[in-house]
Amino acid sequence: MDHHCHPLRRWSGRLEPNEFRACFSETLDPRVLEEHVPNTAIYRTVLRRLAPIFGCQPSEAAILTARQMADPARYSRELLERSRTGLLLLDHGYTGPDAMGVEEHRAAVPIAQREVVRLETLAEGLVEGHRRMEDWLDAVRVAVREAVRGGAVGVKTICAYRASLRLRWPDQRAARENYGMLRGALRARGGGRPRLGGEPLCHTLVFVAAEECAGLGVPLQVHCGLGATDEDLAESSPLGLRPLLADERHRELRVAMLHCYPYHREAAYLCSVYAGAYMDLSLAIPLATTDGARAMREVLGLCPWSKLLYATDASRLPEMYLVAAQLHREALADALCGLAEERILAFDEAERVGRQILAGNARRLYGLGASDG
Questions:
Q1: Phi, psi of 72, rounded to the nearest 5 degrees
Q2: Do 259 and 235 form a contact (C-beta atoms < 8 A)?
Q3: What DSSP character marks residue 300?
Q4: Which listed site, 56, 60, 134, 255, has its alpha carbon 20 to 30 Å from 373?
């Protein structure tokens, strides 16, 4: 069960080399894509794993040529089936103009799917219709409840992209001033969708979402660590989430920390001491490759394996789903075999723990049964 991923893009026919490379790197710099991404462990891994599927040489040119000749629907379906994923929890808030919509994605992808609400995207869409911050926050609360009643199984925040993840109880006067500035900028542009930013407003929104998630019984996913070039990585440590995890006002809240790398040790610590803390390594596993596998072993040294979740953070191309899934299973198998060889787990226990991490923990966290996919 992939508890955190994003939709595929519509098949675009010919794919330029830099478009393909961009899916396996966080860089937006064309020079890095051109000169350096081909010299990374993840990119070499992708080429070597895709070559046998096409029956071609493990070179970028050969794979892109074979890919262009493939039937789009059949190729995507084959790669997704090879990933052995039974259920996708999708964040459709991370999209581009060519990303599939919810119903389109369900029709195209033969895997059970549920949705996770992207908090900031939802909230930004409500700014234009509400003059007062308090009315806007009330509208966010209503929208979150309606989304969950409509089938969403969680809420995700990208606060780390827009402000520091060192959460503080916000100054409401500062938050109101920020909201007024946001509305003013929106009027100056003649409408459209604003971009939330700054600690007073973003932190206010996170605390409101946490209260709603706790009341609705759904997890709050929080982006931590790597994952976007527009975040300050130094300000994205999960240790900043302590106000959500330690305060009695959020006793019923469950927080799923996403990615976490290079702060995976800190996330593992939080999972070991706070009942509501869960984590994954999602994007760290493919992007960091060998170091991602090392991170898996480190995490299992401290994080209860009842708190570790499986996710790929895959998006855009079916190749991402496949390679991320393969690398994640291999890293998990290697880490669990190590625990068995050290006689911390018996081999049959290690197998049960593996199944728990790959699906059981997330099904329990999100309240999903076998009938959900």
A1: -55, -50
A2: no
A3: T
A4: 255
Q: Is 349 exposed, middle or buried (0-12, 13-18, 19+ CB in 10 A)?
A: middle
Q: Which residues of the chain have pLDDT under 70?
A: 12-13, 95, 370-371, 373
CA-based nearest residue to 102, from 7, 187, 16, 235: 7
Q: Is 114 helix (H, G, I), strand (E, B) or coil?
A: strand
- Rounded to whole angstroms, the Cα distance separating 365 from 4 reads 13
**Are 279 and 219 a contacting pair, CB within 8 Å?**
no
From residue 241, how far is each of 41, 299, 363 by CA, in Å? 32, 18, 23
Answer whether 283's CB lies under 8 Å from 226's CB: yes
Topology at the third CATH level for domain 2-372 = TIM Barrel (3.20.20)
pLDDT of 373 = 64
Rg over alpha carbons for the chain, rounded to the nearest Å, is 21
Query: What phi-psi label fits residue 192: left (phi over 0), alpha (psi between -120 and 50 degrees) or beta?
Result: left
Q: Provide the residue count of the chain.
A: 373
- Give the Å distances, CA to CA, from 71 to 77, 78, 97: 10, 11, 22
The Cβ-side half-sphere exposure at 92, using a 13 Å CA radius, reads 17
How many other CB atoms are found less than 10 A from the CB of residue 90? 22
Residue 224's H or E segment, with its range, is strand 220-224
pTM beyond 0.85 = yes
Q: From the centroid of its chain, how far is CA 170?
A: 26
Domain edges within the chain: 2-372
User: Rounded distance, CA 119 to CA 220, Å?
Assistant: 10
Residues 6+ apart with CB under 8 A from 359: 1, 86, 87, 310
What are the φ and ψ backbone dihedral angles of 102, each rounded to 5 degrees?
Answer: -60, -55
What span, in angstroms and rounded, lies between the C-alpha atoms of 373 and 369? 8
